[in-house]
Description:
This protein is about 60% helix and about 0% strand. It has 5 helices and no strands. It is globular and about 45 Å long.
Amino acid sequence: MTPQREEAARLLRLAKRDQAAMQALLGAPGVPVAVAFFHAQQAAEKALKAVMCLHALEYRRTHDLEALAGQLADAGCVPSVGEAELRLLSPYAVEYRYDDESPELLTPAQAVAIVAAALAWAQSQIGPTP
C-alpha cells in the first residue's frame, strides 16, 4: 500500500468515526443539532481530504468543503456530493461551533444523506481498506 493510500484510508476511518458521532448525537436529549452537524461537516471534510491524499493533491488547512470539492473537480475527480449541499455543512465547522444558538441550515435527514454520499464516494475512490 502506498503512503498516499494509507493516509487516505486513515482519513476515511476518521470520517466514519465522525459519521458515527453525528448519528449518535442526532436526537440525543439536551444536545443541540449544531453539535451533530459539526461532526457531519468533519466527516465530509475528511472524506474529501482522503480522496485528495489518494491522488496526491495538496490541500491547505481549511474547513471550506466547497473549496475542497472544487479543487478535486479541477483535478478531474468530481465528488458525488454537490457544492450546494456541501455549502450547507461548512458553517458548522467554525461559525456555529461556538454559538449557543445557530440556525438550522439543513435537516438531520439531509445531513445524514450528505455524509453518507460523501463517504460512499470516498470509499469507492479508495477501495477496500483494512
